[in-house]
Specification:
Layout: H1 2-31, E1 62-73, H2 79-83, E2 90-100, E3 105-112, E4 121-131, E5 143-153, E6 174-186, E7 189-200, E8 210-223, E9 226-235, H3 239-246, E10 271-278, E11 282-289, H4 296-299, E12 313-323
Antiparallel strand pairs: 1-2, 1-12, 2-3, 3-4, 4-5, 5-6, 6-7, 7-8, 8-9, 9-10, 10-11, 11-12
């Protein structure tokens, strides 16, 4: 019996030492710092470049209040003294509320004046961040977001037949945009691609109801607080639609129609150039663009002004962020 007691006394300290060593090992592993979390890359300064959406998000619990204003053509009738290079007239105004429901999901509400016959628009939009570029992380080289919106025109329906605003029902007032946004920052230069699909529920005879466009944006930093931003869209309008708007009577009857009407509509690619100024509380953009309208649903299918003819305009965007709520700790 004494032999077993001595054996137990010998083995017990070894077992306790073994348990202590195991515990120390576990504690040591717990003290090892976790893998460093990579920081997201800020590709653009805001949720929009000029006309194009970006992959930037508002942030959970925050609201980005944005006012965008487009004036009239710089070379319009009246010139410098008569119309102050277009500053006397407002072509389009958008007042938008961009709210971050999560860090990856934004919801947008906006009121848009509209520059054409389809005006007084309300916009509801969502943007979801699919993936985000991270610093020094080759596994996350791109930021990709999906943007969708629906806009409704609240203006009174026109009584004219075959006119843009000849609405016969509520659905005729609706239009939709779906846009995939792919962006990356190369050093200090930001590049972006915006494949876009626009659907307009009501269009006049021989116009395109659905239209695909490819767009893009680039940002060049000049100083820490000053950037130059450029964005561009090329809509793929059908040949039948182009011919229709170029005919004498806007009724295309090939092959007898001849395209020579000087007052006919001609469409151009929207191009914008902006000087972006960053301050402690605001982001201010001084914009120059040939697109009179601000909403994607309108400026992609309906830009009829050309830069080379002086048909571009001043504009500005002011952005201010607010905190709506904070997470409870």
């Amino acid at each position: 019996m004494k032999k077993y007691c001595w054996l137990a006394c010998f083995l017990l300290p070894l077992q306790l030492w073994s348990q202590d060593t195991t515990m120390n090992s576990l504690v040591k592993d717990m003290d090892t710092p976790a893998v460093e979390k990579k920081e997201p890359v800020e590709i653009f300064s805001g949720v929009k470049a000029i006309n194009a959406n970006t992959t930037e998000m508002t942030g959970k619990g925050k609201m980005d209040f944005r006012i965008t204003h487009n004036f009239d053509d710089i070379d319009g009738r009246g010139g410098v003294f008569g119309r102050a290079l277009g500053l006397d007239n407002a072509r389009d105004v958008r007042i938008g509320f961009h709210i971050g429901l999560t860090n990856r999901l934004d919801v947008n509400f906006a009121r848009v004046k509209g520059a054409g016959s389809v005006n007084r628009l309300y916009e509801l939009a969502f943007k979801y961040l699919l993936t985000q570029q991270l610093k020094d992380d080759p596994k996350h080289p791109l930021s990709i977001a999906l943007f969708v919106n629906a806009a409704v025109a609240s203006a009174k329906a026109s009584g004219l037949p075959n006119f843009d605003a000849s609405f016969r029902s509520f659905s005729d007032r609706l239009s939709q945009t779906v846009q995939l946004i792919i962006a990356r920052k190369f050093g200090k230069v930001s590049l972006q691609l915006n494949p876009t699909f626009v659907n307009t529920n009501y269009v006049i005879q021989n116009d395109d109801k659905t239209m695909f466009a490819i767009g893009g944006a680039v940002r060049f930093p000049v100083t820490r607080k000053f950037n130059i931003v450029v964005d561009y869209f090329h809509p793929f309008r059908s040949a039948a639609s182009k011919n229709f708007f170029n005919t004498v009577d806007n009724t295309y009857n090939p092959p007898t129609d001849v395209v020579y009407n000087p007052s006919a509509f001609k469409f151009y690619d929207p191009l914008g150039i902006s000087f972006e100024i960053l301050t402690a509380g605001h982001t201010f953009n001084l914009n120059f663009t040939n697109a009179a309208e601000i909403l994607e649903n309108r400026f992609i299918p309906r830009t009829t002004s050309a830069w080379q003819k002086g048909k571009f305009r001043w504009g500005f965007t002011i952005s201010r962020k607010f905190v709506l709520w904070r997470e409870k700790k």
